[in-house]
Design a protein that fits this description.
Elements: H1 14-27, H2 32-39, H3 43-55, H4 66-81, H5 98-113, E1 119-122, H6 126-134, E2 144-147, H7 160-171, E3 174-176
Parallel strand pairs: 1-2, 2-3
Helix pairs in contact: 1-3, 2-3, 5-6
Length: about 190
């Protein structure tokens, strides 16, 4: 829509003024300064009109994306289980890509949340392998990685030892491999 230069606020009732200001701002993407010039009113008044338009329901936002469901599920998980954070990824169109998508999300989470001095216990598996591959190489001081699944395993691409070493290498951490079972039958 072309901007009409002779729109003046005094020509319109309040409801129409709110709708026009909202249209210029939210649909056309004009600045509040430019809207104030078009309508012949101050920028602060434009701000107030836009705020009133939102409060009164003249302007309503609707986010249409699969990510919205993920955000809702994250909030639900946090509330139900008392978590400080949760990450949910959209369903993969091809289910075989799910570990890759989850791995990417895990790498992003780890890159944002591993801090100096942290001790990270790792398991192993395909999804973790994807996460480690996606993780940026960034040294994090005084960080320790421990293999969470103890015991010895034969060499294969997916094993606890390899996962722990690769993760530790990516973040410049010390790595501890515990060749013991995670659960023991007896305390000794």
């Amino acid at each position: 829509m072309a901007v009409i230069e002779n729109e003046k606020a005094s020509r319109f009732p309040d409801a129409e003024l709110k709708a026009r200001a909202a249209w210029h701002y939210y649909v056309e993407g004009l600045t509040q300064e430019r809207i104030s010039e078009i309508l012949g009113i101050g920028r602060i008044k434009v701000h107030r009109i836009l705020s009133a338009a939102r409060e009164e329901g003249v302007v309503q936002f609707r986010i249409r994306d699969s990510v919205v469901e993920c955000v809702q599920l994250e909030e639900s998980l946090k509330q139900r289980f008392g978590l400080s954070q949760a990450v949910v990824v959209p369903s993969a169109a091809d289910r075989s890509n799910a570990p890759l998508m989850i791995g990417h999300a895990a790498a992003t989470y780890l890159a944002d949340n591993v801090n100096p001095g942290d001790v990270i216990a790792l398991g192993w598996g395909r999804t973790l392998k994807f996460a480690i591959n996606e993780l940026p190489r960034r040294p994090i001081a005084r960080t320790t990685v421990v293999s969470m699944l103890g015991g010895l395993t034969h060499a294969q691409p997916l094993n606890p030892t390899e996962s722990a070493w690769e993760f530790a290498e990516k973040i410049g951490a010390e790595c501890y491999l515990l060749p013991v079972p995670v659960y023991a039958d007896r305390p000794e």
